[in-house]
Every structure is written in C-alpha cells, then in structure tokens.
Fold these 2 entries.
Entry 1:
Amino acid sequence: MATESEKAKESIHALGIKGTAERVFIYLLEAGVSPVSKISDAPHIPKASIYDALGELQNERLVIEYSENRSKEYGPVSDSQLKDLIASKISSIKNAETALLSLMALGHKEGPTKPKIKFYTGKEGIRQAFRDTMWHEKCKETFLMWPTNEMIDILTPEFSKWHSEQRLRYKVHMYIIRKHSDRKLDKESEEKHMLLQSDGWKNDRDVRYAPKETEWSMSFWVYDDKCLFASSTGEQFAFIVQSREFAHLMKLLWKNTWAVSTE
C-alpha cells in the first residue's frame, strides 16, 4: 500500500510538478512557511536549483512569497486556493479534450494528408490485413470485388464467420460483386456450410454476380479512405492503401463493374 508521502508525490506529478520543484513543494507542505536557508538544509534538495524550483512553483501558483524585513520566505497556497487551482486545471483539460476530439473527428472525415501503404505476406498475413480493417460507427458501407470460394479457402470459414460478425456489430452494409462461378458455392465441408448459414454471411449485404467472362483471383475491398487488396491463390499476399483519392478511384471502377453485374 502506498505511503502518504508516495500518494503526495503522485498527486503532485498529476499537477505537472517534478524533480527539485516537487521536493521543494513537499518540504513546504510539511514544514510550512520557510526561508531558502532552511529549504537548502533539507536532504535531497540541490541547493543550486532551489530558486529555479521556487520560480516554477510560483508560476504554477502553488507557492506564495512572503517578504518581511528584507528577508524572503516561501509557503504553500491555502487549501481554498489549491482547490481553485485544481478546478481550473480540470476545466482546461476538459476543454482540451473537447477540442482534440473535434480535431480527430475532422481529420477522420477528411482522411490523412499523406497516403499510406502496408504490406502483408502469407495466409496469416492476409488474415491480419482483414483484422486491420478497423470497423467503426461512422463506416456504414463497404464495397467488394470478391472471388468468394477462393477467399474462404484462404481466410478459412472460421475466420470469415468471425470477421462478418464484427462487421454486423457496427452495422456496416456490404455491396459484393462475386464471380459468375460463385453462383454455386462449394458446400462440401461442414465448416463452409455453417459459414453460409451464419447471420454475418446472410445479413446487411447486397450481392451481384459479374458477367461470365469476367475472371479474377484477387479481391479488393473499399471502406472509408482505405482499399484492402488480397491474393486468393498462389501468391498469397495482401496490402492496404490508405488514400482518399485512391479509394475514390477504386470505388468508381467498382461501380462500373456493379452496373454490368446481375443480382
């Protein structure tokens, strides 16, 4: 259990006071109003930095200077002054919280100023890329070119079910373009059959099938200002591009394919 001295130090740290200023303030709290000569006799307080520490404490309005008969003494502020000071700091922190959260929301809306690309390799790397999709409340729609049978084999039915359940938690609607051959999904394995019957696989999604002659083996997934690309067969790699302009272009290309696909 923390001692009273340790609790005091933690509280002073919360006010942003550390080092020699912390030691001087603790001394004044315990000893009361004191001249510099007494403060300098206290253990673990470097004499050369006492005036700097006192100046810091005065700037933080934690210490008051008393001058009598040309000698100076220093003491902590009153209980009521300390309460007012802490209340002021709490108010400042709350205002800063509001401002920073607003700024973060604006930044999320406008997207990053510098595009980012992240690469993943192997089957586990591909699954990690899908974990990094980072669903959230403001993401309401996502758009896919999806070679379904191949991607289930890469991700595994168990992982696909889990990932779909995460999407449903945030009520993200999917618009999916599948290959013509996916009209007849492979249901040979029990795990795959269970996946096709799951809520995440059935709900909040619109599906169309690309023209028969349209073949591809790599999926792409547009959400927010990101595009996730994943190989479904031999090369086994994935990458995420975070760029508003790139995401806009890929969504435009996706819409062109969606327009010629059938329900």
Entry 2:
Amino acid sequence: MADEDFHLGAAVVSSDGREIGKLVHLLVGPEYGLRALVVKESAAFTGHGFSPGSYLVNDEFVVPVDAARSVTHDRVELSLSSGDVRLLPAYLSYREKEETSTEFAADEIGPLTASPEVPHWVEQLANKAADSLEIDRDENVMIGHSGKKLGTVKDVLFDDDQLVGVVIRPEGFFRGDVILPRRFLDRSDDAALFARIEEGDLERLTPFKPGD
C-alpha cells in the first residue's frame, strides 16, 4: 500500500465488511507527510436511515493513517471493526463562544434542536493539529491573499508517504485539470487552500493525465 493510492471520494470499509462512508479530507503535516484520513459516515452507518427526519450533530471522524489496511483508487479498507470505528474521534467539535445580543435573539428563534444550522453561540472546531493542511475535494484554491480563485481541488497525489501536489480544475472554460505541486501550497482554512502562485503561472503547470 502506498499513499499515492488514496483518492478523495473513495469508499471506506471496516474490517468486518461494513461500508462506513467516504474519504472526504486528508490531513498532512508541515513536512507534507500524510497524517490522518477524515471520513464522512454514510446515512446507513450513522443510523440516520432509522430516523430520516433527524439532524446529525456530526458525521465526520478522524482515522489514523496506519489504520488503512488496503487502499485502491475507489476503496479504503480499514484494520478496524465497525465497532472500533464508532469510537474514533469526531473531526469537528463545538464549543460555546461569546455573541452579541442580536445573535442571541436569533438563536432563541431557531434553537439547535429545530435547525440544521449551528447557532451563533457555538463555535465549530476541527480536530487536527494547528500545522496540518486540510485538503478537500471541490475545495476552492485561492491565489495568495488576492481574493482571486485559482480553481477547485479534484484529487490528491502522493509519492510513498509524501504529498506531491493536488489536481485542480482552473477557473474558466476549456481548461483541463492541472497539477499544482506542493511547493505552491501555502496554508488552508475552513473554506479554501491558498497557493503561492500567479494566474499566469497556470500556463506552466503540468497537465494531469490519470494513470501517468
């Protein structure tokens, strides 16, 4: 098994054969080594199918990379049973934060039990190290601090345990996917990846051809 086999959107299966969800995020460290997987649980695995009118408090959890027993392009098999998986830590957590009187009034109208949205007085936190870089499928890639969108993430590329780059689909029409090498990746936040690159540099990036 090699880290280049991990692909966003792959099915994730427990050791007892349960399909538990999809691979939605990869967490890499400051040296670009793969640290952990973030899996979004399927409705069947969460039990949501038994109560379809209910909202899920959290449906993403963190899987240590060494728990991946077998990996192909479309499937990740874990060494953990479905019972073990249910004990893994949630990726997002929530805590109370200070809010204005206007936000408080809005929350009184729409409490957590009646709305799928997180109320203003709750802060969402990701369960990852501060120096980890989160990479998501269809995540926006922004050009530095310019506020301009470079494109969206379509996949990730690994060579053994090192992140090589991300496959992005640039903005605009009639442009194929290209590889954004890791040297251009600056940082990430909850909404986007940021790249140290200029728009004109796109013309010099390597076209992505699956299987090369």
